[in-house]
Amino acid sequence: MTTGTKQGYADLPRLIALMTGDEKHAGAAESTLDVLWVLYDRVLDISPDTIRKPARDRFLLSKGHGPMAYYAVLTAKGFLDEDELAGWGGLDSRLGYHPDRTRVPGAEISSGSLGHGLPLALGTVFGLRARHLDRAKVVVLVGDAELDEGSNHEAIALAGRAGMEQLTVVAIDNASASHGWPGGLARRFEVEGWAARTVDGRDHEALHTAFTTPHPGRPLAVVAVVEPKG
Predict the structure, then answer these.
(1) Nearest 5°: phi and psi at 122?
(2) Between β-strands 195-200 and 167-173, what pairing exists: parallel, antiparallel or unpaired?
């Protein structure tokens, strides 16, 4: 982990630009940028100093096929050295086109194959409960198209019935789902007992309020609406 000076939101476009190549999935990355920044800068207790502590908050990037914004935020927050970004995806780089939890400092899961993050988040909450770590937040970031995966719908139903107050799903809605949901994406969670909030995915204050307003006894879904893909 780097010990260099931390950087700010204004540095993120420059950090992303250091990562070049044909596998950038630029749209997937740019859609998550503001959500990631608000979470790491203002919401979650995650830092290079706390990442090994059992009571830390957890962030799970299920939308792992466009990790450049994630790597940029990890760099700005001191997990990675800026010098690593230019070589991402190379044979000797620990920064793959999909994040590898065994190689990327701060990554809780390996991801990229969609539909896994939310079920893993449920398992994480159950594990924390077994250890009586009831105050650690678990946040998982998914895409709206990813919610077409059946594994997510099983997890949505179970989390609502289990009253997983520790769990937050943030769904990036860039209008790329194949069929959509009757009543909108937030309604998909609400019918299963979740608290759900839909906000502008570029509005930092709205995101912060959505993430931090209490939702006692229920998991939380934050639908972050951004520009349509493409």
Answers:
(1) -60, -45
(2) unpaired
The string of pLDDT tens digits covering residues 75-87 is 999 999 999 999 9
Number of H helices and number of E strands within the chain?
Answer: 7, 5
- Please give the single-letter amino acid code of residue 131: R
**Alpha carbon distance 125, 119 (integer Å):** 10
Spatial separation of the C-alpha atoms in residues 159 and 166, rounded to whole Å? 10
Pairing of strands 220-225, 138-143: unpaired
pTM greater than 0.85 = yes
Residue 195, pLDDT above cutoff 50: yes
Helical axes 68-76 vs 26-38, angle rounded to 10°: 30
Provide φ and ψ at 229, rounded to 5°: -60, 130
Q: Containing H/E element for 69? A: helix 68-76
CA dihedral over 192, 195, 197, 201, signed as positive or negative? negative
Rounded distance between C-alpha atoms, residue 106 and residue 51, angstroms: 6
For residue 172 the two structure tokens come to 């990036």
For residue 220, how many other CB atoms are within 10 A of its CB? 24
* CA dist., res. 3 & res. 16, Å (int): 20
Q: Which of 168, 175, 206 is nearest to 60 (CA)?
A: 168
Percent over 90 (pLDDT), the chain: 76
Give me the DSSP letters along 155-195. Answer: HHHHHHHTT-TTEEEEEEE-S--SS--TT-HHHHHHTTT-E
Instruction: Tell me which residue has tokens 């924390």.
Output: 128
Say how far apart CA 116 and CA 138 lie, in whole Å: 15
CA dist 69 and 164 (Å) reads: 28
